[in-house]
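Recall the central idea of this unit: under ordinary conditions, the amino acid sequence of a chain determines the structure it adopts. In this exercise we apply that idea directly, starting from the sequence alone.
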Amino acid sequence: MRFIISSTTLLKSLQTISGVVTTSNTLPILNTFYFKPEGDDLVITASDTETTMSIRVTPSMMEEPSEVCIPAKILLETLKTYHETPLTFNVNPNNFQVDIVSENGRFRLAGQDPEMWPQMPQLDSSAKVFIKGHVLVRGITKTIFATGVDEVRPQMAGVLFQFTPEEATIVATDAHKMVRLRHLGTHSEETLSFIMPKKPLNQLKSTVPADDTEVLIEYNESNARYTFDNIVLTCRLIEGRFPNYEAVIPHNNPIAVIVDRQALMASIRRVSIYGNQSTHQMRFVVTGQKLLLQAEDIDFQNAANEELSCLHEGEDIEMGFNSKFLVEILSNLESQNVRFELSSPSRAGLIIPENDEAGEEDLLMLLMPIMVA
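Accordingly, the structure predicted from this sequence is:
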C-alpha cells in the first residue's frame, strides 16, 4: 500500500485517539495504530480492548490498499517534528515494513500484522438514542468528578446514563457526594439506561464538539458505541445495578441558604488550611442571615473561623461537611449564587445553582454530612 497524507492532518487525527493507547497493554499489538483502507479513506483505530476508538481520514492519494499496524509511539514522535508537510507511506504487505518518505528524508520502521489485532465487540440488537454534543460534554463534565474508585462497588466508578421519552438523566456518586443532571431537551423513544466507565468518558469529553453536533449512542447489555463526525468510540459497559440515587435525595427541605459561590469557595479554602488535613471536617453554622465556617486541628492546635452574609429561610442549623468535597462541588458549578437546601444535621444537603431563568437543564448536587465534635 502507498498513500500520501498531510503530516498535520495525520498527527491531529492520531492525537485524537491516542489517549486510548496505554503502556500497560498485555498485547503488544495494542501499542500500535491499526490502519485499514475503506474506499478512498483510511480508518485508523486505537484500542486497549476495553475502549476502542477509530477516526476516518482521507489521504490525498492511496493505491494498492492493504492493512497494517504501525507502532504508536514512534509514529507520533516522528509526526510532531514536522510542520505542514506531505508524507508518503509505503507499506510492504509481505513483511509489514513501513517507509515514511518526506521531501528530504526517509524513515523505516517495523509494522505488525493486522491479523494479530484482537476482535472488537459487535453491537447486535442495540438500542439507540441521539444527543447533542454540548449536552453530552456538559453532562460528563458536571458528573465525572463525583465518581468513586471502589473496586468492591464498580458501579460507583462509572456514570449512569438514563434516557426516557421525557428527558435524559446523567448521574454519578461515590456514596459521599452525588451529581444528577437532567436535560429536558434530550429524550428517547423508549427507556434506556447503562453505566459508562471513566476512561471512555474522558475521551468523549475531549473529542466531542461542545456544540449542536449530533452524537449517535448505540448500546446493548455489554457495550456502547458513540458515533459523531468522523469518529467512532466503542467501550465495554460496567455491569450491575447503579445505586438507587433517588432514594437518598431529601425532599421538602425546610431550610434554605443562598450564598455567593466564589466567596464561599474562597472562605472554605482559607478556613480549611487550619483544619484536620485527613478528615477535612468543617462546621457549617447558619444563624439568621449569617453563615459561619469553623475548622480546627486539635493535634496542632490550629483553628479558624470566618463569617459570610447569606440569605436564609427557616430555622438556624449547624452541620458538618467535608471541606474538600464541598469545594469540588462548588467548583463544578457556574452560577453566581448557590442554594443549600437542608433539613437536619444528619441528612444530606442539596446544593443547587441559583439561576434566574429556568432552562432545559436541571442540575442537582448532594453532599452527605459528617459528624463534628
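Residues 261-272 form the longest helix (12 residues).
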